[in-house]
């Protein structure tokens, strides 16, 4: 039975933008596992009741249901050990640090750049939920946050600073070949790419060349997705 | 022949404060290798001429001379493969990211807190070099930077945010046991501890408990060092 993945989408069923779902899709492709995605929207919490929680990604593999992108990555390496996402115990621990850095530093900086575009590309029924929850988080209106975009782009580029020497020295975050930590960081860029035309990286940034390599992986899975080609 | 390590010190020969030299000393202890340290000060560049450059750590192992803490770590794992500092290719790549995060984010935030204490604990002959080079870097006097210490401590704690979930979930940065990425981050705290009485971490911070574990490692190597016990 094909693996099923509940996947967050915007206005169109094929505008799949969740950075967490992208991690999972690239992890499945990394292992060469076939999967089908099921479009899901923020305000359809009840459709995930079978998983015992209300967030995507949710993966169903036969009888097994796993939610949370990090738990899914562990599950995939246990169930399908070939082509590992983590090549050892240290790699998993250090990827967990990178995950927290990506979510607490990079995602936050990126969200401030693409906030209004995210809102604009959501389904009508999701917009009120998105506006209310994000305005509460920032303590500002979406328009107030997005109104400082040049500064926010500069802040994002500064936040990415520790990754530049890594991607100057080697083609992927994980070294000579991509693995889960690459998918974690790339998920953030794909989230932006699907929802916003904002130019995030300068052409001579080593992160720009890495992002191109990531877009080409697994038959161009991420590049083919609906979005705003850079 | 015992391994020799040129080690940056302050006013006293046993006030060894370089975060990079601490990485190397803990890496040597990790592998159970005996070593002797040779005190060295900022203004003694000519004493390192044999290494072809002017920074510590410099390690001499028989005929072999290696400088730069990252290169030394690679050398140690190649020459002495038992008790590896990195358990695989991904671990090394991700530790390289952590190294750049530590140096570009944590060291910078920490330096702003301990700057005047660093200056105060240097040998007289090193103070002018230190003041001139650091004031040039900051574009401010040491006193101007250090005058905002409560803010700087808050900024340091915020910068460490991505590490907290890691050290809440597991005892060491590298997982169940310490390895090189632990030594990278700990080097920063030991740098501060040797030179400054500033309280950097709150007692209920998971980083505080980790730092205590690191101080106990390898027979209390770091805890025994001259400094300001927290």
Characterization of this structure:
Two copies of one chain form a homodimer. By secondary structure, chain A is of the alpha+beta class. The first copy, chain A, folds into two domains: 3-79, Glutaredoxin (3-Layer(aba) Sandwich), CATH 3.40.30; 89-220, Glutathione S-transferase Yfyf (Class Pi), Chain A, domain 2, CATH 1.20.1050. Helices cover 53% and strands 9% of the residues of chain A. Chain A has a four-stranded mixed β-sheet with strand order 2-1-3-4, covered by helices on one side. In chain A, a hairpin with a 2-residue loop joins strand 3 (58-61) and strand 4 (64-67). The interface between A and B is medium-sized, with 32 and 32 residues.
The CATH C-level name of the largest domain in chain A is: Mainly Alpha
Beta-strand segment tally of chain A: 4
Placed side by side, the strands forming the largest sheet of chain A appear as: 2-1-3-4
Helix amount of chain A, in percent?
40-55%
Round the mean pLDDT of chain A to the nearest integer and report it.
97
**Coarse structural class of chain A:** alpha+beta
Q: From N to C, what is the helix and strand string of chain A?
A: EHEEEHHHHHHHH
What is the fold-level CATH name, i.e. the topology of the largest domain in chain A? Glutathione S-transferase Yfyf (Class Pi), Chain A, domain 2
Whole-angstrom Rg of chain A? 17 Å
Count of discrete structural domains of chain A:
2
Distance between the termini of chain A: 36 Å
**Greatest interface (CB-CB under 8 A), with counts per chain:** A-B, 32 and 32 residues
What is the general shape of chain A? globular
Oligomer: homodimer
Largest sheet report of chain A:
4 strands, mixed
Number of helices of chain A: 9
What proportion strand of chain A? 5-15%
